[in-house]
Every structure is written in structure tokens, then in C-alpha cells.
Design a protein that fits this description.
Blueprint lengths: L8 H10 L17 H17 L11 H17 L2 H13 L4 H19 L4 H7 L3 H10 L5 H21 L10 H18 L1 H4 L5 H4 L2 H16 L5 H14 L3
Amino acid sequence: MKCLPLFSAFGLLAVASSTHATARPQPAPADTVAGHSRMVRKLSDAMCTGVTNDHTTNFAQLSPPAAMQLTQQLFVQAMKQDSAAFLAIITAGSKQGQTAQQVGQELGKDVVVRLARICPAAMPLVLRLGETAQAQQAAKTKLPTTTDTEKKVLQPLANHLCAQLDAATAKQAFEKMPVAQRGALFIKLIQQEFLANRTKLLTYYSKAQLDDDQQREEIGKKIGGLMVEQGTCAKYLVVVGMDYINESKP
């Protein structure tokens, strides 16, 4: 069976991380397709078991394409354990006007998000997924458009923020820090970038925009999008995004 394009989760993570200080979202709605939540739990549990029992693969050292390939293999293996239920979800989705690809994308997104949330052993694999071209493209579709002129203003901030995060985590990996510590570090460094580069930002944005919380949030999302494009810097967004999602769970 050809594996569906699944992993659009990182667009969500990029948005969540760049808006980490905003209000929490409402609890997730009930299944839009019957059996979706149950299948997400079964697949992510099975994938976690597969990762946890793999004592030979160094997930942190995988290339992003290899991480994607391995995750897809784990997904297919887990899906085969209950293929009848998977086909039932596809059928239920088609009755609601959804294609198999749409159903599979939603399923894959939620599986990856839950896998990262419940399975510490899978986090190195998830971080490598965040560096894939698929993840970067997914993030772009979830983030506001950045004009070429705007990018010239924001790119140095994104570059410096990535360098600052690398320096701050040289002795302790970001994902191994306590949640509160890494969240505070991320927010502090973003605030420092805004303050240190206010004059430069004023060459493109108005004072009213920079003083408005919603406008700053939009600018933060755009900086996040530029950070995602830098590959290894995406891991910071993935971790903070997952922390935000975990905090938001009812």
C-alpha cells in the first residue's frame, strides 16, 4: 500500500510555538470521522512500542529523509495491525465528502502529535522529522505570507535567534531542559530580538504595529517560518510547539 502524505503536523507546531504566550485554545472537538480518535491512539501506541523496542537505531543521528522513511514504515506497520478499522475510517470519511488522502493526512498529523506527546523515546525521531522538506512546506502553509522586503528585515532576526538558541543550549540540549526553563528561554530570546532590533523593524512596520500584541504575534509567526527554513533550527519550534500543545490538553 502506498503511504499517504501524512506529516503536516509541523505547520501546527510552528504556529503553536510562535504564539506560545497567547491564550490557550479550546479543547479539540469530537471526531469529524467516526473512529478517528481511537485509531490515533492505537497507531501512536503501536509506533511508540516500535521505537521503544528499537535498541539499534540512533534516531538523533538519522538524516531528515531517513527519519521520514522510518516514520512512514512504522505507521504502515501499525496500520496493518488493524487494517479493517483503517479502511472503515476511509469509508466513513468518503461518506462525508473527504478523500482518502484528506482522511490520511488528518490521521497522520494527529498520530505524530500524540506520538511526540506520549512517547519520550520518539522525541529524537520527531525532531528529525521537523527538519524535513515536508515539514518546512507544511509550516509555510500554516504561517502568514512574508514579502521579499519584509523577509530582508526579519531574516537577520531569525538567523540571530537560531544562533542564540544554539549557544544557550550548547551544554544542555533544548529538549532535555525542564519545560518551564526552555519555554522561558525561548520567550526571553524572542523578546530580546524585538527590543534589540526595534529600529530596524521600524523601517518596515509602524510604531502602532510593533506596539500591538496581535501584530507582534503575526511578526513572530513570520520569524518562526524563517527559522523553520533553516533546518536544524526547526527543532526548537517543534519542542516549544509540543510543550504548548501539551499544556493545552484538557
